[in-house]
Design a protein that fits this description.
The protein is an alpha/beta fold and 251 residues long. The protein has helices at 63-76, 107-115, 129-139, 170-179, 192-201, 214-232, 240-250; strands at 2-3, 10-11, 41-52, 79-89, 99-105, 126-127, 149-157, 160-161, 183-188, 204-207. It is globular.
């Protein structure tokens, strides 16, 4: 059995990876041993991680640190430099303001920050996920050079999102994320509103149940890692269509 050199997913013979699209090389059936010879993508990634800390997320509180740590360690083997920015957000209607735990830190500090998050309050059928996405887009110092920077935004959330206080639609928010050259990844229970944001942003939804078991946690880690690497390997933080157009112009 062959394995993808990027995300370590199993491959059928002579087929591209079904998760990240990497084309296998002949005679590479050594499986996970390939990780020792992996060449890192020469990029600096700004990875903003946000966790919904309301009572809605409490049922999978144990799963979030595991998913983040395993995903982050996998990315560290594939990307030259990663700086993490860790946030949590609550219910604005209950005066639970967003909190930035760390800024521009390494993997070890980011893991420690995620582990300190405590889940409480909120618990209403909808939370302020969209407001926090808009906040992160505006306050983060994103990388500006599409040739060497990767801008990645990951949110862990449950339940639906409330309407934006700014009055923007979900599609407008998603388009703004895309136009800013930010790759969006939502690890969440899919809803109509969250799907509209992701589709307009050209991002990814990684489904998760409220109480993931070990098998589901590993599936989420694999999907999230592969999805992030598929965007990093595109070579730019601009939209996929713009990337292809830019490459065509250069060539």
């Amino acid at each position: 059995m062959n394995y993808c050199q990027v995300c370590q997913s199993q491959l059928d013979d002579k087929l591209n990876c079904p998760k990240c699209g990497t084309q296998p090389k002949s005679g590479t059936a050594q499986g996970p041993k390939l990780a020792k010879r992996r060449v890192k993508v020469p990029a600096v990634a700004a990875v903003v991680v946000d966790v919904d800390r309301t009572g809605s997320s409490e049922p999978f509180a144990a799963g979030i640190p595991k998913i983040f740590e395993r995903t982050a360690k996998g990315l560290a083997e594939r990307i030259s430099e990663i700086k993490y920015y860790v946030w949590s957000h609550g219910d604005l209607d209950c005066e639970e303001q967003p909190i930035q735990l760390v800024q521009g830190v390494d993997l070890a500090q980011a893991i420690k920050a995620i582990q300190t998050i405590r889940f409480d309050g909120g618990g209403d059928p909808a939370e302020n996920h969209a407001d926090q996405l808009e906040n992160l887009v505006n306050v983060t110092q994103w990388g500006a050079d599409p040739l060497c920077s990767r801008n990645i935004l990951v949110m862990f959330a449950t339940d639906d999102t409330k309407p934006l206080r700014s009055g923007k639609s979900m599609k407008q928010l998603g388009k703004e994320i895309k136009d800013r050259g930010i790759f969006l990844f939502l690890v969440c229970q899919e809803t109509k509103n969250l799907r509209e944001i992701v589709d307009a942003a050209g991002g990814f939804i990684i489904p998760i149940s409220t109480e993931p078991d070990e098998k589901e946690i590993q599936q989420v880690v694999s999907s999230l890692t592969a999805s992030i690497m598929s965007t990093v390997n595109q070579g730019a933080t601009i939209s996929m269509s713009a990337t292809r157009s830019q490459s065509a112009a250069i060539n």
